[in-house]
Amino acid sequence: MRTLRHVHIPAGLALVLALTAAGCGRAEEQGAGAVLPDPVGRWAVESLTTGGRTLHAPETARIDFGEKEAKGNYGCNGFTAGVSFAGTDAVTVTPGASTTMACADMEFETAFAKLLTGRLTIDRGPDRLTLKTADGSTIAMTPAPATPDASLTAVEWTVQSLISGTTVSSLPAGATGSARFTVDADLSVSGTLGCNRFSAQVTRDGDRLTFGPLTTTRMACDGPAGEVEAKLTDLFASGPLTSRIEGRRLTLTAADGKGLIAEAASDAE
């Protein structure tokens, strides 16, 4: 019968083998973690699958997941929501506020809002996140770097919508893109109100902007562009406006809740 001999391993070699084994274990753990991203963060929506159809997302569709809340864009309208994570395998979404603009791709907007509610399971991959509803519909997303906030000055802002209290409305048909303005480094402003060109001087106090008297051309304006012009003229003359820039979106709001949302052109544009 063969006997097993005890082989003495030098202490130095034993230590090297132990460290090597431990290092291999850590590498596997780190490798597993690297391919399973944390859902908390910014995600660009790629597509939805629902009712046997795939709906491709506009570039602006996204979700920013925090620990307890989320915000994002359905593609045109912004939204907020409460979230409650069950580890990294599921999340319960409670819709909050959203804007109500009429948008070009309302089919996608409506479907996205319908899917992003209730308990959703989370499927994580090395470069994507998929949210799944109970009926098998999905929201497919990829990581998105945070968009740096645009500068207030030296950017042309195009008015996209008007605010009245809790209501946000897109510009009426026939007035889209008609109202634009630029704030120069010396806080002088120039642009168009919808029909007439204007200029003014702005004073800035933190996030509050106050427009001085407007100098305008004198064309008679009617129709949608004239309506927009009248509202913007009243807004700019109403006193200090609270400004907020998020990414390439500027919001100006007066004390009475009226205001505007404008967007800066992307670098590609």
Write the layout of secondary structure elements.
Layout: H1 11-34, E1 41-50, E2 53-56, E3 62-65, E4 69-73, E5 78-86, E6 90-98, H2 106-115, E7 118-124, E8 129-132, E9 138-143, E10 156-164, E11 167-170, E12 179-183, E13 188-193, E14 197-205, E15 208-211, E16 215-216, H3 223-236, E17 241-246, E18 249-253, E19 258-264
Antiparallel strand pairs: 1-2, 1-3, 1-9, 3-4, 4-5, 5-6, 6-7, 7-8, 8-9, 10-11, 10-12, 10-19, 12-13, 13-14, 14-15, 14-16, 15-17, 17-18, 18-19
In words, what does this structure look like?
- The chain is of the alpha+beta class and 269 residues long.
- The chain folds into 2 domains: 41-143, Lipocalin; 156-264, Beta Barrel (Lipocalin), CATH 2.40.128.
- 18% of the residues lie in helices and 43% in strands.
- The chain contains 3 helices and 19 strands.
- The protein has helices spanning 11-34, 106-115, 223-236; strands spanning 41-50, 53-56, 62-65, 69-73, 78-86, 90-98, 118-124, 129-132, 138-143, 156-164, 167-170, 179-183, 188-193, 197-205, 208-211, 215-216, 241-246, 249-253, 258-264.
- An 8-stranded antiparallel beta barrel has the order 1-3-4-5-6-7-8-9. It has an 8-stranded antiparallel β-barrel with strand order 10-12-13-14-15-17-18-19.
- Strand 3 and strand 4 (69-73) form a beta hairpin.
- The longest helix is centred in the N-terminal third of the chain and has 24 residues, at 11-34.
- The relative contact order is 0.11.
- The model is unreliable at 1-33 (pLDDT under 50).
